[in-house]
Amino acid sequence: MATEVKVPTLGESVTEATVGQWLKQPGDAVAIDEPIASLETDKVAIEVPSPVAGVIAELIVKEGDTVNVGAVIATVEAGAAPAAKAAPAAKAASAAPAPVKAEVAPAAPAMSAPAIEADSGSITLSPAVRRLVLEHGLDPSGIAGTGKDGRLTKDDVMAAIAAGTAVAAAPAPAAARESAPAQGPSRHQERVKMTRLRQTVAKRLKEAQNNAALLTTFNDVDMTAVIEARAKYKDLFEKKHGVRLGFMGFFVKAACMALKDVPGVNAQIEGDELVYNDFCDISVAVSAPNGLVVPVIRNAEAMSIAQIEKTIAGFGKKAKEGTLTMDEMKGGTFTISNGGVFGSLMSTPIINPPQSGVLGLHRIEERPVVRDGQIVARPMMYLALSYDHRMVDGREAVTFLVALKNAIEDPTRLLIDL
């Protein structure tokens, strides 16, 4: 008798999700608790495990469909099935890759999606990863995956490209190339349905622009002292705490100190009331395969820099594996977004409602500055604070940035709370 696979509880106040990807197809063997589907909610992707060991009998819904908690999405025939991991190998062995390539290979050097599936055997690629592989004409089987169960992520592909270790996909057979008609410049269009996460991000950011009186103020900070401290202690820090010493630990700690001095930036508006928080729950933007997610470092004001770095590293690992939970991304009183890791020079970040402020960090680059009457080169970073002007006055915003700048340029202030 077939066992029903139902949508699990998705978290507080979350009642529906979108089927992002089927990880198994009818006829595939599955082990108990092996993921068979990936669901996308407003904040995170959740994998649905098989309740029994057996063979996938039927997929009741399609990728992109919206499903409610408790809905039946598939059935599994329980029984003495072969090991789930043996199924892809058997399929790969029985496949005839050459005819498939000849059917689908165009004149362009990049492989088409069917050709990738044939070559990669049991490799399951998300739409974003498949698109990136196609654009660069790469062989996905030659890239090591760091996602859950060894799956390939967008970051894996980008890292392989940057390191020069990515292997180009095999060209189409000569017969297919000769028979392909001559083509002019490509005018291809691709329509991809927005993920639920992207839809939610778009909705919330637009709401912030519509409802809040957004304003951004800027400052710059000399990173010399922090860079020197990091270079001096990074090896000892990693040896003692088991995590690398980055810049975010300094900025989170400095932000907590500045938020104490300017509590309005750490507050929010609820109806006709102003709610001031005596704690700092710092939301930190982290890159994930499906987009940016914002987990929360709770009570960051009570943490050491080492504890902050450990927490951020843990969030980064979970984001890459897709295992962040709803509870880890709920709340937050202030956000820090580091666009500098992608090369951003300056930006005007948008607040994350109902928060009243977001700090944007940017790339560090040497610029000429005047010190003691002399023009010297210093590693400088632009800081941007976007805030809700209904809650925060310009004087408070500037005071916050100056306090943050002083703490970063003289890290001793972080130790003596000055």
Layout of helices and strands:
Layout (H helix, E strand, L loop, with lengths): L1 E5 L9 E7 L6 E2 L4 E6 L4 E5 L4 E6 L6 E3 L3 E7 L7 H9 L2 H8 L8 H8 L6 H10 L17 H10 L10 H6 L16 H16 L2 E9 L1 H18 L6 H14 L6 E3 L2 E3 L6 E3 L1 E3 L2 E3 L2 E2 L7 H17 L12 E5 L18 E5 L3 E7 L2 E15 L5 H16 L2 H5 L2
Helix pairs in contact: 2-3, 9-10, 9-11
Structure description:
The chain is an alpha+beta fold and 418 residues long. It folds into three domains: 2-78, Beta Barrel (OB fold (Dihydrolipoamide Acetyltransferase, E2P)); 95-175, no CATH class; 196-416, Chloramphenicol Acetyltransferase (2-Layer Sandwich), CATH 3.30.559. 33% of the residues lie in helices and 24% in strands. It has helices at residues 86-94, 97-104, 113-120, 127-136, 154-163, 174-179, 196-211, 224-241, 248-261, 305-321, 394-409, 412-416, and strands spanning 2-6, 16-22, 29-30, 35-40, 45-49, 54-59, 66-68, 72-78, 214-222, 268-270, 273-275, 282-284, 286-288, 291-293, 296-297, 334-338, 357-361, 365-371, 374-388. Strands 9, 12, 15, 16, 17, 18 and 19 form a seven-stranded mixed sheet that branches. A hairpin with a 2-residue loop joins β13 (286-288) and β14. α2 (97-104) runs antiparallel to α3 (113-120) and α9 (248-261) packs across α11. The model is unreliable at 80-122 (pLDDT under 50).
